[in-house]
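Report of the visiting student (M.T.), summer placement. My assignment was to run the structure pipeline on a short list of targets and document each run. The first record concerns IS110 family transposase.
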Amino acid sequence: MKILKQSIGIDVSKSDFKVCLGVIDEQLETKNVYEQVYANDKKGINKFIKDMVSKTDLRIPVCFVMEATGVYHQQLAYALAAQQFCVVILLPNKAKSFSKSINIRAKSDVIDAKLLCQMGLERKLSPWQPPESLFATLKVLTREREALVLQRSKLKNQLHAYQTAFVKAEKTIARLKEHILYLTRQIRDAQTDRKALVKQSQPVAARINKITKVKGLSFLSVATILAETDGFNIILNQKQLVGYSGLDVQINQSGEKMTKGCITKKGNAHLRKALYMPALSACRTNPAMKLFYAQLNERQKAKKQGVIAVQRKLLLLTYSLWKTGQDYLEKCA
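After the run finished, the structure tokens were exported:
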């Protein structure tokens, strides 16, 4: 039996990960040949890599397929990438869609590992590339700031409620004010760390400075876009970028029925959130975007659709300026 391809499905959890090694032969029949559980720590990962080297034929293509599980898969993914293995990291919705397509109704860690193994054998999957350390750190800082701002907003709402109440708890109000001041300092510190990080790379700092000349795009907005796209290293073209952001238009067509207008929202929510306020600002201050927004509103009643279109346009403009390294010329926009 000639083996054409090998796939290793990995279901990762906090303490361990389940492994399923499968092969596909020249008759296109799949077979699971090895299953095991390893501890999700340095010792367990080293043992797993050693076992896979002995149990697979390295002359035949082999890929390691896993789902993105917060941060628990990262140590394993980086260890495999360091050994020059082909690593595939899937979004959970892709694995779920594949499970539905082959009518899998049950769910467990072992079943998920087998499912990912089968998916690696039957589908052509894009390999994962480890992000640059600068953009990986920048993503942590931008998401930290986003979480801190959300916490502060909740506390401000609580403070307003306590201050408006007929019976006022003065000590509670004082503690809330103190907490809000603390979060404000944390947000300021995160901003300082982001700028210091970007300054470590002169080419990155120079390009960001060029992009922020676009009215509506601030340092924070551009930094978030770059962090969420790994400096556009994971993006091949504009169509993929729009899909990754979830700003692509959802089309529903059947027979004579044809509806469209809503965006899919199936992409990166952090990216969409980072572009919303810049789009509102650009609609007022950026001449090119203001004209574009006005033309859209002449054809449709829902003004939010125009704002979303400006979001998409700002994202693609950022992508073009980053890839080309050119200066932004407002008269040519």
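The chain has twelve helices and seven strands. The two ends are 60 Å apart (CA to CA). I thank the supervising group for their guidance throughout the placement.
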